[in-house]
Structures are given as structure tokens and as C-alpha cells.
Amino acid sequence: MVRTKKQHNRISNRTYPSKLCKKEGCMMEFIPTDSRQVYCCSQHRIDSNNDKRKVIDKFESEFTKKAKKNRFVLIKISESDYYKKRGYVEKGLLVYEGYELPVYHSKELEHGTNREILVCYEYGLILIDASKEIYKIDIIEK
């Protein structure tokens, strides 16, 4: 004989005060079945979480797009005869090529000099002269 388990929904005897739904645009008042419940229905919870995720995904995709552009600029400049001849690049040229200084993945310290390295993918940008705004491009080995 095969026994099947019956699934019983647990019903709490607790009562909670009514709340307003937290979904933007919904002003429905509801009585929660759990103290953590903040949406009047599961669809509003799903919609709200999807909206939050869209904001985060948009930020991440914009950052990735800018970081890839920065990487392309660093490759272009580091492989140019101008950079190979001088061994450094001015901030003006970086900006002219479309490099965005605030966009990088991490900061590290250069061994020996303790200068700050702005790391973008496998490339590092090191400020070697602050008064003249001169930078050096290095390939970072992980």
C-alpha cells in the first residue's frame, strides 16, 4: 500500500494590523498574513523586484560599456608610436580619446613607489606627475 502525504497549509492565529502596499502606484490597504509581508499580492512583489533589478542591470551595463571603451583607449594609446617613444601620456590625450578617469575596476598600489594604479581590465593607469597630469600605462598581471 502506497501512502501519500497530505500537505497542510499552516494557518497562523496571529492577526496583523493593515498595511499599505509598497508597490509604487498601488495604494491598496491589505491585512498581511505574515509580519514581513509588504505587498498586497504576489504579482506586486514580483513587479517591484523586477523594477529594482532593471535599475541595477542598467547601472552595471553602463559601467561595463564605459570600462570597455576605457580599455580600448588604453590599448590604442599604449600601442601607438607616440606612447612607445615617450613612455607616458598626458591627461589631455586620454580625455580627447574618450577615456573616463572615474571609471575603473579597482585601485592597487605600485610596488616600490606606492603610487596608486587605476585598474581597468588588464591595464593599469599610473599618475607619474600630478602637476603636469602625466600617466603611465601598464599591463597588470594577475
Parts with pLDDT < 50 across at least 5 consecutive residues: none
Report strand order across the widest sheet.
3-7-6-5-4
Largest pleated sheet: 5 strands, antiparallel
Helix content: 25-40%
Please tally the helical runs, counting DSSP H or I stretches of 4 or more residues.
3
What is the count of β-strands?
Answer: 7
Shape: elongated
Q: What is the radius of gyration? A: 27 Å
Strand share of the residues? 15-25%
Question: Please, could you describe this protein's structure?
Answer:
The longest helix is centred in the middle third of the chain and has 37 residues, at 42-78. The chain has a domain at 46-139. Helices cover 35% and strands 20% of the residues. A five-stranded antiparallel β-sheet has the order 3-7-6-5-4. Strands 1-2 form a two-stranded antiparallel sheet. The termini are far apart. It is of the alpha+beta class. It contains three helices and seven strands, in the order E-E-H-H-E-H-E-E-E-E. The protein has helices spanning 42-78, 81-86, 91-96; strands spanning 19-20, 29-30, 89-90, 106-109, 116-120, 123-129, 134-139.
Indicate the topology.
Elements: E1 19-20, E2 29-30, H1 42-78, H2 81-86, E3 89-90, H3 91-96, E4 106-109, E5 116-120, E6 123-129, E7 134-139
What are the key terms here?
alpha+beta; two-stranded antiparallel ribbon; 142 residues
Short description:
The protein has 142 residues and is α+β, with helices and mostly antiparallel strands. 35% of the residues lie in helices and 20% in strands. It has helices at residues 42-78, 81-86, 91-96, and strands spanning 19-20, 29-30, 89-90, 106-109, 116-120, 123-129, 134-139.
